[in-house]
Amino acid sequence: MSNVRIYPAVGKWVVRANGSVIGESTRALELLQRDYPFVIYFPREDIASAVLDASDRPFICDDRGTGVHFHVSSPEGVIQNAAYSLTDPTPEAAELREYLAFDAGKVTVERV
Fold first, then answer.
1. 29, 41, 49, 58: most buried by Cβ count inside 10 Å?
2. Which CATH number belongs to the domain containing residue 104 in this structure?
3. Global pTM?
4. How many domains does the chain have?
């Protein structure tokens, strides 16, 4: 059985950085991986690209592949390494290549 399962995320999802909406989508994907909490992935075009700044910190996951982190700008300042994107996904995570996920401890991701 695969350690990665991807489903359409039901409803409309929003991501906020310090209270400011930086993206929303009805086309988000939900990732379930092992016993971890689910992660919502947003299509890149549904996130305000002006708030993202590439980080030097790589993203590495045995189950999902490798990618890059992004700092997220908000009116209150920059949130370090708050988003990530897979640039070289594993075959089972290939569907997530053009998507962004966010660190739920640093920004708010919720269904509205």
1. 41
2. 2.170.150.40
3. 0.94
4. 1
